[in-house]
Amino acid sequence: MYEEASNSNLIMLLHTAIYPFIAALIVSFITGKLLRSSSFLGYLGGFIVGLSLIHSGLSFPPKQAMDYYSISVIIGILAFVSLYLSKSSTALKYGICALLIGTSFYFLLNPVLQHSGIHMSIIWSVACTISTLAYILLSHQTNNSNNTESKGFEKLEPHTPMIGLMIVAGSAAPVISIGGSLLIGQLLGAFAAASAGYLLVSLITSNRQAFSSAPAVIILAGLISQSHVLADIPLHVMILIAASCFVTPIVRNLTQKAIPTIISQAILSILISGFCLWLVWPESSLY
């Protein structure tokens, strides 16, 4: 019995962390070499690998709510293209991005909310879109030319939005796993692992690109919102986790420095996750 439990834990670790991390390393390196502006595909590739392993019933075209993450990945790529490559006006670019984000949330949440009427799906999609777009806007206001950190740390600064999202996902994973859904918790872990692989390659190769975190925040926001809608995580817990995402862009804009930003995000995420774990911890034994 203990050997079976050990094997099960090892498989879970491989699917949640190891394989997504390795896949992200490989895809990030290849895409970064072929086209530097596409290295963000690394963490999306790593997440898709994790999704296919964790959600064994993954199908395309999608049939279940979880299947629509494959659509969200495609939408995230289109959102990046609309923001980074488009020569349209700023208002038009963000308008297209908002429409894409709203579509992603509608696909993810409607399969669960449709019994409450289409208006509930639209309300949730609009609310999540506004929050996600606010993060994207806020995280790209920093003027990198004002960075005064030493050369050893200055290359971290362009990647602080992704580092912040990775920390949030990693700290939220145990909360969601214990409080509502092991599946979504594992996907959060896979997202964090894939992000770590992407960041490692980007730091080594010095790849820098604007809006690389835009697809990531769409995926992470989808996981957080689904944790409430699909897995019955309390609304206030979901809001606390979602709000913690904004620590990085706010501190980054205030300090213009990577290290204080990362430390602030880590401390706040640990505190919030600890508090949320206390809120969702089941009364009965986990075993």
From TrEMBL:
Signal peptide: none annotated. It comes from the Bacteria. Keywords: Membrane, Transmembrane, Transmembrane helix. The chain crosses the membrane at residues 12-31, 40-60, 66-85, 92-109, 121-138, 159-177, 183-203, 210-227, 233-251, 258-281. This is Transmembrane protein. It comes from Marinomonas posidonica (strain CECT 7376 / NCIMB 14433 / IVIA-Po-181).
